[in-house]
Amino acid sequence: MAVFLWLTLAVFLPGCAGQKNLVVLMPEEGKTSGEVTVSNSQGSQVLKQPWEATKFSVAGGRPSAPVIMDETEVRRIFAGPLSAMPLPPAKYLLYFEQNTSNLTPESTALLAEIIEAINRRQPAELSVIGHTDTVGTPEDNYQLGLQRAGTVTDLLKSLGATPAIIETGSHGEGNLLIMTGDETPEPRNRRVEVIVR
User: What is the pTM of this model?
Assistant: First the structure.
């Protein structure tokens, strides 16, 4: 079953025909838009594309045929509600040296950026999930994934991260980024996925 998110914004627009409701389907970063049906006693319209909109009179009347609105205009009309929305999740991949919980230098350099993302989202939620390549047993790799997640969590805390919620876990070798055979030392699979909400 597909899961989708959409945002419906309604405002009263002054006009010579009286007050109108405006409903706009907003895109969500990195996701395919769903659809929304706007209905009243006079009829309905289906919005299926990002920035698609329909209007209808407060006093009644069928919702108008959908039109694509200019993003800049939508953001101007809905500036207040949009400014109150939470920031989208920030996602990071941090990589590790083989068979260790030592971050690569490039990944260590990303920690400051993650701290900034946490500070911009207060109260923040943090998900830290460890992964491994296929070298070693599944049991050992699960534990190594946990160690990696713990290392990242401890480093972020030592740098001043104060998220309200921290979830840590491990997929071990069970959720490979790059599909490989058993006992394959693939650097891109030796990672921690960090999501800041």
Answer: 0.72
